[in-house]
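Dig into my protein:

:::
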Amino acid sequence: MTKVQFYHNTPDRLALACELVTRAQAGGRQVAVRLPDTGMARKLDLMLWTSEPLAFVPHVMNDSPLAAETPVQIGTPGNDVRWPHGDVLFNLADDLPPGFDTFRTIVEIVGQSEAEKNPARMRWMQYKARELPLKAFDAERRVAL
């Protein structure tokens, strides 16, 4: 069954995504990252190259021919219908990811603005209606809610 974690109150969603993706990949996880648009996807791509000077997080866009061989894939709505694995999906987009139930874990990263909170509340209710196990964390204070 898919487990869902929400990180609320995130001051910098891309920075938290970069940190969590780096940790997950270092721990041997296969990671998919779903971003709302190509601009954010490019920013995360750059962050994964530069966040830790001596670290390397192998990543590609999910439509790359190397996606199945690369531990981290980045995608956007409309380009996210097929992920090469079903381990963990980080969602920063406003809607419910297609095929979310094929992943072991979904991590929703929610910012501090109402424009980000309202769609997140809808996703929470959709996951809850499917009776998926939900956990919530305050990303700024780094505590469970």
